[in-house]
Amino acid sequence: MKIECTVNGQREIIEIEPGETLLEMLRNRLGLTGVKKGCEVGECGACTVLVEDEPVDSCLYLAARVDGKEILTIEGLSQGGKLSKLQQAFIDEGAVQCGFCTPGFILSAHALLKRHPQPTEEEIKQGLAGNLCRCTGYQNIIRAVQKASNE
Amino acid sequence: MYGVKQLFVPATVKEALEWLHQNPQAKVIAGGTDLLLKMRNQAMREVVLVSLHKLKELEGIEILPDGTLRIGAMVTFTQVNRSSLVREKLPFLAEAAVTMGGPQIQNVATIGGNLCNGAVSADSAPSLLALEARLVLENREGTREVSLEDFYLGPGRVDLKEDELLTAIKIPLPRHNKWGGYYYKYSMRRAMDISTLGCAVVCAVEAGGQVSQARIALGTAAPTPIRCRQAEALVAGRFLSPDLLIRIGETAAGEAKPRSSWRASKEFRLELIKELTARTLVQAYQNAGGEYRDEN
Ligand SMILES: Cc1cc2nc3c(=O)[nH]c(=O)nc-3n(C[C@H](O)[C@H](O)[C@H](O)COP(=O)(O)OP(=O)(O)OC[C@H]3O[C@@H](n4cnc5c(N)ncnc54)[C@H](O)[C@@H]3O)c2cc1C
Ligand code: FES
Ligand code: FES
User: Which residues approach ligand 3 with their CB closer than 6 A?
Assistant: First the structure.
């Protein structure tokens, strides 16, 4: 089946399978490998992308649903080769170790900051509750979001 | 890749119902957070799906002319939480909505899917039982309404025919001017965890401080989510007291039939029921404007 959507600001017309996940469409058809394939059961958030500004687990989401919708992946965050404030804050605060969880965390945090430009620590924890990190222990990630929110 | 043979995306409810009538083997997909997981776990193949994601008629939250609050079946938990109408009329339901999953799941999971899935741990069920919610079910032949309590038939089984869609949830708004509600979810983690036990209470308080009426509902405490009518009868017309709260907890535990699972033993669940029923009642009473201080 054919769908039409906007991915990182660019209009796309894509031929997909009915059982295809949004994760598979973004990685395999559009080459957006910043979308990570982790648990594939909605638990880890590594596959998080934004659909109409809201984080969703792309592994548990049929690609057919994004017909007519706007999608943002980690590849669409930097502008003109310059990292977003949030991306830079993740680097500055050492919020990245192996990096596998990072695109998902940054997109969840990006959506959070759009809704709550000055979130409390509790709001940050809630906003990131659907993302798991096996390396950093979360403290640096929370600090990075706080840093980006203060700038 | 999920094992989908065909995916039908109707533009209207009428079209969806007609198609379901002709394809009774088809499965309905709303958010897909239960169904897709099941398809993966059971390695289901050749599934025929009808997706509700373009049905505008199943969206929206509004007050009907008869004063009930209507929540469309495709409304997500995030939308329940953010709705200014829900926050104003049923603030505890707005809070209860974000006790489930995490943001990514709340953004996709629908309240209709939560109920139709029939899980005993469904986080929307206790609150909606305590609110005496009614479900609007439609097929090609017509529309019927059932109470949520009657909708639950048994473990994982609900009163939904193959060719039917749940289109909306109707909630009679509490009329009493001093009322409050609360949902207590007991789970190992605060997010991304299924409830070990859930308790919801809606209660109304008299000017003098007596409870005029309370409705108590439990999740994961019996084969289906349940109301605890004997416990409710005990509290009607009474002032809260430590003794009364103990009796209410024990009575609710007597009405429940919890099982042991890897999450918790039956014995632990019985203790949770006693304690959480009392705590949730006190919190609902306080949310209704009642004053109660725990002397212990
Ligand atoms: C990581 C994760 C965490 C979760 N955490 C929780 C939690 O904490 N609490 C909780 O309660 N649940 C939880 N769930 C379960 C699930 O997200 C919810 O039950 C959700 O509300 C299901 O809604 P859905 O729209 O995704 O349903 P779907 O998966 O689309 O459908 C579920 C079932 O209902 C049927 N159905 C759906 N809508 C209709 C309709 N309108 N008419 C007729 N039939 C219909 C479908 O055919 C299917 O059988 C979790 C799931 C995941 C993956
Ligand atoms: S890969 Fe999607 S949530 Fe883990
Ligand atoms: S940095 Fe390795 S999982 Fe988060």
Answer: A 96-101, 133-136
Q: In this structure, are A55 and A114 located in the same domain?
A: no
| Residue whose C-alpha is closest to residue B2's, from B51, B53, B55, B59 | B51
A48 contacts in B (CB within 8 Å)?
Answer: 104
Q: Do A72 and A8 sit in the same domain of this protein?
A: yes
In sequence order, what are the residues at sequence separation of 6 or more whose Cβ sits closer than 8 angstroms to the Cβ of residue A2?
A13, A14, A15, A16
Pocket (CB within 6 angstroms of ligand 1): A 42-43, 60; B 27-35, 37, 52, 73, 100-101, 105, 109-110, 112-114, 116-117, 121-123, 160, 165-166, 192, 194
Domains contained in chain A, number:
2
Do residue A139 and residue A91 come from a single domain? yes
Q: How far apart are CA B167 and CA B170, in angstroms?
A: 10
B-chain residues within 8 Å CB-CB of A58? Answer: none
Specify whether the CB–CB gap between A85 and A148 falls below 8 A: yes
Question: What confidence category does residue B74 fall into, taking pLDDT thresholds of 50, 70 and 90?
Answer: very high
User: B85 and B62 in contact (C-beta within 8 Å)?
Assistant: yes
pLDDT tens-place string over residues A130-151 = 999 999 989 999 999 999 998 7
Residues A92 and A71 in one domain: no
CA of B192 to the centre of ligand 1 (A): 14
Collapse the DSSP code of B180 into the 3-class scheme (helix H, G, I; strand E, B; otherwise coil) and give the result.
strand
Contact B27, B165 (CB under 8 A): no
CA atoms of B8 and A93, how far apart (whole Å): 47
- What pLDDT was estimated at residue B176? 85
Describe the strand order of the beta sheet including B134-139 as a list of residue ranges.
B61-63, B68-72, B165-172, B134-139, B142-147
End-of-domain residue from the set A17, A46, A76:
A76
Query: Do A94 and A138 lie in a common domain?
Result: yes
Between CA A66 and CA A3 the distance in angstroms is 8
Domains of chain B: 4-51 (3.30.43.10), 60-172 (3.30.465.10), 179-287 (3.30.390.50)
Instruction: Name residues whose C-beta falls within 8 Å of residue A139's C-beta, 6 or more positions apart in sequence.
Output: none
Q: Domain range for residue A25? A: 2-76
- DSSP conformation letters of B258-289: ----SS--HHHHHHHHHHHHHHHHHHHHHHTT
CATH number at A47 reads 3.10.20.30
Phi, psi of B205 (to 5 degrees): -120, 135
For B264-290, write each residue's pLDDT tens digit: 999 999 999 999 999 999 999 999 999
User: What ipTM is given for this predicted complex?
Assistant: 0.97
Q: Indicate whether A71 and A9 sit together in one domain.
A: yes
